[in-house]
């Protein structure tokens, strides 16, 4: 009996605190909060998209597809990177091309990242509206801020990759499916079908499969007949394939067998672990680790708050009285003990749970499990579950404020101190107080270049550098003036987080990344081998021997205007050859046996593919046998 009383006390405690949170902590109406969220999202993301050059193979590989679309006029299956067909369907590249036309007609870092940023903003706004109408403005706004500042989503929203657009289309389709459920599954969810079509055109059938699978499981737990749910979602899933099939057919007419092989490899082979080459193969626990890392910095609050459970336990043991004037919507039947077998009781509780909570939880579990089965695992695959986790995290944060957990103040203070230390470190670099002799090893030169770039920071960057310490001062003043816990503490923490991100995105990160960029190398190559003097060809041993996903000079090719062709495929009689230094020593003698003559012109000033890239002028004096 005593154990049962403790359980009831805990339930009353949680319900009372949540009722207080939703009822008394509402500080903005739905419309004002929406515009606040829109302004914050735009201000903290859009101004910084073009500051950093491309510095990985992924971004320029996608951007050059849009570049070749605009240059060639081929919007179905454009050839790029020396004759290669794109590895992904074209919807993302269409949006990059459209943004490039609207922003000046040239594919740039800003225009190529803009679709991802707009997708993140749109997904966040739609998530806010979805939860605000069902769970209140406070929780919805907090969840939206958490989504914007979760490291994985924030990073993807500023990258020229297909993953953020796919995530936004998937999540928004799920939101629309829930509205379809609220209407009693009547009519046709046309907008959800359209979004799934676009998602399929972004990265393949997974764009339709995941929303249908997650929503189907939700319907089953809500008591919908299996055959009805299966037939409905099969119909909507098939309807979402109509537009993609039109493109697949047109691409097959252009690419033939090569295109079909690539489709089978990238979609069915990746999901069934039958790919001809290893791609992002990671162990079973990778998804757990990457999910925790993807929720930096908020995961720190979760870790710190574990001590709050001790406080709750002590209160239960003392039998502290609580205000039990509860909101009946929060004391759901899912908290009742029930009768029957354990499995039956569990299913009964799940079916009687709050439908929004159940829907959000099922989306998290189903999508997470779906991506646990393939060997190919990447952190970005899990991004569709981040907005739903943000909802639960927002409720958890409100609960922490309700129980007056010290973790809230400690976490905010840690962020404030981190901002101060970041600015202090910058000041030391700017004043030359950190000697370059501290760097050793193979990356010493690059690390020194990064530090020198940061030391040259000026102008607009100074404003961004000043944000974290100013936010920190504001935080400590806020804590001194507000002794009582309130939801305002949570929004103050969000402000601290945005300040840190703006400093990183607007000042530090572009300087660090540009020290690794190959744009200067491309400019030097263009000066030595201008477009009017001949074609540039590449030879990379790994690309010639790879079973799939070959390596190219992606960054150089983008900054050179997609000028680099494949040497082995074309076997040209004259032009320029770009080749890694180590491979030049091995392969140039072989090419000379085929009648080629090479004149060394240039060595890259920065590492390319982790070594020096060499440029040669060549002619062919005899034909190969």
What does this structure look like?
- The protein has helices at residues 2-24, 30-45, 58-72, 91-102, 109-135, 137-149, 151-156, 163-182, 190-203, 206-221, 226-240, 242-271, 286-294, 298-305, 308-318, 342-351, 355-370, 386-402, 406-430, 444-455, 460-481, 488-514, 519-528, 541-545, 554-559, 567-570, 581-593; strands at residues 536-538, 564-566, 574-580, 596-603, 613-620.
- Among the domains are: 2-298, no CATH class; 520-620, no CATH class.
- The chain is mainly alpha-helical.
- It has 27 helices and 5 strands.
- It is globular and about 80 Å long.
- Mean pLDDT is 88; it is low at 1-10, 16-26 and 318-338.
Largest sheet: 5 strands, mixed
Which blocks of ≥5 consecutive residues have pLDDT under 50?
A: 1-10, 16-26, 318-338
Measured as a percent range, the helix fraction is: 55-70%
* Alpha carbon gap, first and last residue: 93 Å
Q: Whole-number radius of gyration? A: 28 Å
The structural class is mainly alpha
In what order do the strands lie side by side in the largest sheet? Answer: 2-1-3-5-4
What is the count of helical runs?
27
Query: How many strand units?
Result: 5
User: How would the global form be characterised?
Assistant: globular
Tell me the strand percentage band: under 5%
Q: What do the pLDDT scores average to? A: 88
């Amino acid at each position: 009996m005593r154990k049962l009383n403790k359980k009831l006390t805990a339930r009353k405690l949680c319900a009372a605190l949540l009722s207080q949170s939703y009822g008394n902590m509402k500080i903005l109406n739905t419309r004002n909060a929406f515009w606040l969220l829109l302004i914050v999202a735009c201000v903290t993301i859009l101004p910084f998209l073009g500051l950093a050059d491309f510095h990985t193979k992924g971004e320029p590989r996608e951007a050059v597809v849009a570049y070749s679309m605009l240059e060639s006029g081929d919007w179905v299956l454009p050839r790029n990177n020396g004759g290669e067909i794109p590895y992904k369907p074209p919807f993302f590249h269409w949006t990059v091309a459209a943004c490039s036309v609207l922003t000046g007609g040239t594919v740039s870092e800003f225009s190529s990242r803009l679709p991802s940023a707009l997708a993140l903003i749109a997904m966040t706004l739609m998530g806010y509206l979805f939860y605000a109408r069902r769970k209140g403005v406070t929780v919805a706004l907090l969840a939206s801020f958490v989504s914007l500042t979760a490291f994985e989503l924030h990073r993807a929203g500023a990258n020229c990759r297909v993953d953020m657009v796919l995530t936004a289309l998937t999540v928004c389709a799920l939101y629309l499916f829930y509205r379809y459920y609220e209407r009693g599954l009547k009519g046709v969810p046309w907008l959800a079908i359209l979004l799934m079509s676009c998602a399929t055109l972004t990265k393949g059938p997974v764009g339709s499969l995941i929303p249908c699978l997650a929503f189907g499981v939700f319907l089953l737990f809500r008591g919908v007949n299996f055959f009805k749910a299966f037939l409905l979602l099969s119909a909507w899933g098939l309807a979402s394939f109509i537009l993609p099939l039109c493109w697949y057919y047109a691409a097959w007419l252009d690419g033939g067998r090569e295109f079909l092989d690539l489709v089978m490899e990238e979609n069915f082979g990746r999901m069934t672990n039958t790919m001809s080459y290893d791609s992002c193969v990671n162990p079973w626990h990778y998804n757990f680790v990457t999910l925790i890392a993807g929720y930096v910095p908020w995961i720190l609050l979760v870790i710190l708050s574990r001590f709050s459970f001790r406080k709750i336990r002590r209160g239960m043991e003392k039998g502290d009285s609580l205000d039990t004037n509860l909101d009946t919507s929060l004391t759901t039947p899912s908290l009742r003990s029930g009768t029957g077998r354990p499995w039956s009781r569990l299913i009964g509780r799940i079916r009687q749970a709050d439908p929004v909570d159940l829907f959000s939880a099922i989306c998290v579990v189903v999508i997470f499990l779906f991506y646990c089965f393939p060997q190919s695992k990447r952190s970005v695959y899990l991004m569709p579950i981040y907005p739903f986790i943000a909802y639960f995290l927002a409720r958890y944060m409100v609960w922490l404020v309700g129980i007056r957990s010290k973790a809230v103040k400690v976490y905010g203070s840690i962020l404030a101190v981190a901002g101060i230390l970041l600015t202090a470190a910058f000041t030391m670099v700017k004043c030359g107080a950190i000697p370059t002799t501290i760097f050793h090893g193979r990356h010493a030169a690059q690390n020194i270049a990064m530090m020198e770039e940061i030391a040259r920071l000026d102008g607009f960057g100074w404003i961004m550098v000043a944000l974290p310490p100013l936010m920190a001062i504001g935080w400590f003043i806020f804590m001194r003036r507000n002794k009582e816990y309130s939801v305002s503490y949570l929004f103050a923490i969000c402000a601290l987080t945005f300040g840190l991100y703006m400093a990183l995105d607007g000042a530090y990160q572009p300087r660090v990344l540009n020290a690794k960029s190959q744009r200067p190398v491309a400019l030097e190559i263009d000066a030595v081998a201008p477009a009017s003097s001949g074609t540039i060809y590449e030879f990379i041993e790994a690309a010639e021997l790879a079973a799939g996903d070959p390596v190219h000079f992606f960054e150089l090719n983008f900054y050179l205007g997609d000028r680099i062709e494949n040497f082995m495929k074309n076997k040209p009689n004259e032009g320029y050859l770009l080749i890694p230094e180590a491979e030049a020593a091995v392969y140039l003698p072989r090419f000379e046996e085929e009648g080629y003559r090479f004149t060394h012109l240039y060595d890259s000033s920065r590492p390319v593919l982790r070594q020096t890239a060499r440029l040669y002028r060549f002619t062919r004096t005899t034909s190969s046998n």
